[in-house]
Write a structure and sequence with these properties.
14-stranded parallel beta sheet; alpha/beta; 11-stranded parallel beta sheet; 2 domains; elongated
């Protein structure tokens, strides 16, 4: 007997989409405990201003909008945020009257929106986008108006405490300055990270008063207000308390920076990079490093630096906004800034490559050599005690020890060109503008002021004069 196939017709009503995500970053605080002229959010940590980590996490989450609430140091914060992403905008909190007042400052801008609002403090540089995703998922699963992110600290210090009722539900948040001695014993703290449905936010927060030790409108009062209105508040307890701790002083700034450097080191080690001592190696957030590269202690990789595969870097080297080709070896105590190094280059020890240095494949730059705005061709070398500025050096060139290009006449910089296969003897000066043609030799101790023809020998030094017996007579006069 044939069986009749049945088909399930799709519902004519599409699945409701979850609300969009708006992120509100509270960035108006003065940060008095930093004792700084600048906003604490503008302080640099592992390659980025503190607040930029928060903004980047919000954008990576997929927020449709990131709204920054700024105050008296707004220009510092705007510059620190830096991004031109159209999703990022700013609003002003005219007076510093608390976190609740800061959120209310955004009411006009957010009026009518029905997104899920994620509220973050701007001083959370260690915050991961994965944590925000977990919080958002937890919030949606519990289908509540408000979800807090909490953590447990051995010493809660100045953090607000989470007060729970007999059912272990969140009853309220009490700020440290308003807490009783018993409440100060609570170790679960409010991390200042909230998920709230916009339709429940402003109408309830407007009921908050300023009846507290600080005389401010607390965002945390929203918990009690929602509870009074028979609404449930959920709490997502995050297991890594260090990740969600704010930065309020220089000690906490250093601790957060160390955490970010170690996080970057772990990321790179998982991708095949060797750190001889990750505790003492400092790789900033935007740096890229290829596999099988070895980083020695006290190496600093800064800015948008890119290091290729199978390199050796350090110790004591600083590379900033530069590109280092595959198989390159940077020996001890070198400084490299805005330079491009090809494959198989060897630099150092104690070399200084300044901006607009370009080293082709196999170039050798040795100890106490400085370059600036100089391109050096494949296989060329300057092994000792040399300055090359505003220069173009060809392939297979040997620059002898103590050679300098005299590129500055007191008013203007001039160019030196040394063509392929040239040999420059030690202690020579090339007075720019000047050109040494292909295959030529420059004798040691020469001062070259005119073009040297191809395959010729140029010697430009004073004639040696010997006066026999002069030293004996000179010494007798002295005595």
């Amino acid at each position: 007997m044939a069986t009749r196939k049945t088909s399930i017709k799709p519902s004519p009503f599409p699945e409701p989409k979850p609300p969009g995500i708006t992120v509100l970053v509270l960035a108006a605080g003065v940060g008095k405990r930093m004792h700084s002229r600048a906003s604490k959010l503008a302080h640099n940590l592992a390659g980025k201003p503190m607040v930029r980590y928060v903004v980047d996490a919000a954008l990576a989450l997929g927020a449709q909008r990131v709204l920054m609430v700024v105050g008296s140091q707004s220009e510092d914060v705007r510059q620190a945020v830096g991004t031109k992403d159209p999703r990022v905008s700013f609003c002003i909190q005219e007076q510093p009257l608390g976190t609740g007042h800061a959120v209310l400052s955004a009411e006009k801008v957010l009026k009518g929106a029905e997104d899920t609002l994620l509220i973050l403090n701007g001083d959370l540089p260690s915050l991961r986008v994965e944590t925000l995703r977990s919080l958002l998922e937890f919030h949606r699963q519990h289908a509540v108006p408000l979800t807090l992110l909490t953590a447990v600290l051995e010493d809660p210090a100045a953090y607000g405490r989470i007060v729970r009722n007999y059912n272990s539900d969140v009853a309220r948040i009490v700020e440290a300055s308003d807490a009783t001695p018993e409440e100060k014993q609570i170790q679960e703290i409010n991390a200042g990270i909230y998920c709230v449905e916009m339709k429940h936010l402003f109408k309830n927060l407007l009921q908050a008063g300023a009846n507290n030790a600080q005389g401010e409108i607390y965002l945390t009062d929203l918990v009690e207000i929602l509870k009074r209105n028979h609404q449930k508040v959920a709490a997502y307890r995050h297991p890594d308390s260090e990740e969600v701790m704010g930065v309020n002083n220089r000690r906490e700034l250093a601790r957060a920076g160390k955490r970010l450097y170690l996080r970057k080191a772990q990321e790179l080690m998982d991708a095949g990079v060797t750190f001889l001592d990750p505790e003492c190696t400092y790789v900033e957030a935007n740096v890229r490093v290829g596999r099988d590269t070895v980083l020695c202690p006290m190496t600093f990789l800064v800015g948008d630096t890119v290091v290729g595969e199978s390199c050796w870097i350090g110790p004591g080297t600083r590379i900033s906004n530069s590109v280092v080709g595959e198989g390159t070896e940077i020996l001890d105590h070198c400084v490299i800034t805005q330079a491009r190094l090809g494959r198989g280059v060897k630099v150092g020890p104690f070399a200084h490559l300044r901006p607009d240095t370009e080293l082709a494949e196999g170039v050798r730059i040795g100890n106490f050599v400085e370059t600036k705005k100089t391109a050096i061709g494949r296989g060329s070398k300057a092994n000792h005690l040399t300055y090359l500025g505003d220069s173009e050096i060809g392939e297979g060139v040997n620059i002898g020890a103590g050679t300098i290009t005299c590129n500055y006449d007191g008013e203007k910089k001039h160019k030196t060109v040394v063509e392929d296969g040239v040999f420059v003897g030690s202690d020579s000066q090339l007075i720019a503008p000047v050109r040494v043609r292909k295959g030529a030799y420059v004798g040691a101790g020469s001062t070259i002021t005119k073009e040297v023809p191809p395959y010729s020998l140029a010697i430009a030094r004073g004639r040696q004069v010997v006066v026999k017996g002069w030293a004996k007579k000179h010494k007798r006069k002295q005595h």
